[in-house]
Amino acid sequence: MNIKEIISNKKRLIVIISVIAVIIISVAVIILALNSGKSNDDKKQSETSSAGAGSAASEDSTADTTLKLPDAPPTSEVPVETEEPDTMPTIDIYIPTEGGEVTHFDGVYVPDSVAEDVATGEKVSMRSLFGKDYASGAITFYSNGTFKDTISASGMESGAYNAENRKIKATYLPDRQMNITVIEWDDASSKPFSFYIIYNFGGVAEYKVNFSEKK
């Protein structure tokens, strides 16, 4: 073999080696590119999965919080009813005063079973005065300044009153005065223990009826 052939063979060998090197480098670059792309895809998938898991965890946490929240206590919608006294509304009746402090109170007063003739002192039954319909009623005073009288079962009379200086001044509707005299006054409750009323049945016939507070 001459020198030219040796040189030619060396050139071919160098070309072949160069081609093989290029091929190896190209393959290496391709493999690296594929691995990098796969790594990015895996990373994105991992991030997506983590985000999804986080969202699911958040939803579960919200659901748990919602379930664990205590129920609001039930609100009662039943209105509170206040029983109003069975009386006339506040009555605009002029009742003379003595310049003292005018007060009102709540109290129920029942009469004795007999009345007394003011002129003779004779004792008579309440039934004989008020008729067969007498029902052992009462006089009820209310703190709104009104009263009702149910001594007779035939009907109910109402009016207005003032309490002043341990005295009671009252007027039946429309303008008939009630003659009340306090016998004993309770300072602690600012109302009377007992009193009497003079009833006039026409002419000069007057009868005194004692009342005491119902217990």
What does this structure look like?
The chain is of the alpha+beta class. The protein folds into two domains: 1-68; 102-213. Helices cover 33% and strands 30% of the residues. The protein is built from two helices and eleven strands; from the N terminus they run αββββαβββββββ. The chain has helices at residues 3-68, 126-130; strands spanning 102-103, 107-111, 114-117, 123-125, 139-141, 146-149, 157-164, 167-172, 176-186, 191-200, 206-213. An eight-stranded antiparallel barrel has the order 2-5-6-7-8-9-10-11. A hairpin with a 2-residue loop joins strand 7 and strand 8 (167-172). It is rod-shaped, with a radius of gyration of 55 Å. It starts with a helix and ends with a strand.
Shape assignment: rod-shaped
Q: What structural class is derived from the secondary structure elements? A: alpha+beta
Largest sheet: 8 strands, antiparallel, barrel
Q: Which oligomeric form is depicted?
A: single chain
Task: Produce a short descriptive summary.
This protein is α+β, with helices and mostly antiparallel strands and 215 residues long.
Task: Throw out a few tags for this protein.
215 residues, 11 strands, eight-stranded antiparallel beta barrel, alpha+beta, single chain, 2 domains, 2 helices
